[in-house]
Amino acid sequence: MGRVQADVQEYNKNGIVASAEVTIEHAIRFVVNIRTHKDENGKEQWFLSYPRRRSGEGWEDAVIPDEDLREEILKCILSEYKDKYLLEPEEPEVVCITRINQKKPLNGRMIVRGMATVRAAGLTIKGITVKETEKGLFINMPQYQTRAGEFRDAVYGCTKETRKKIEQAVLDAYAG
Prior knowledge:
- The protein has about 180 residues and is an alpha+beta fold.
- Helices cover about 20% and strands about 45% of the residues.
- It has 2 helices and 12 strands.
- The strands form 4 sheets. The chain has a 4-stranded antiparallel beta sheet, covered by helices on one side. Strands 7-8-9-10 form a 4-stranded antiparallel beta sheet, covered by helices on one side. Strands 5-6 form a two-stranded antiparallel sheet.
């Protein structure tokens, strides 16, 4: 490991593409945002936004890395972002699909129509449900219930593309 580590999370809000928690030499940690703007030709450009703080009527930098460290931070963040979000996920494989409640009418309700097991990214994911409403079929990833009674996905795709690929694979297997 180098002296710079970054944990990047997608954000996609207010011109921020992602946010990275940067750690320098296992001693100092701060957040850097990957932002976009359009240049004079309308081309989208990316840049890193370091922490700032209000000072009088304006803003000033709270973190100012030297040029070498700035370059190392940029390389680390972009590498981490590329590894996490820009690589093509492998195609999920539906291992098993079991149909249930096929004759049960909707009557304005949501009905579980099937259960699926999928293999993706070296994992076997069991308990994916195929559900139907008046709007059509969709899937739910395996869930657990919190102490507050809320349901949360126990496993999920990190990117929108991965989530869509899993859903499409399950719905295609269900339809076939």
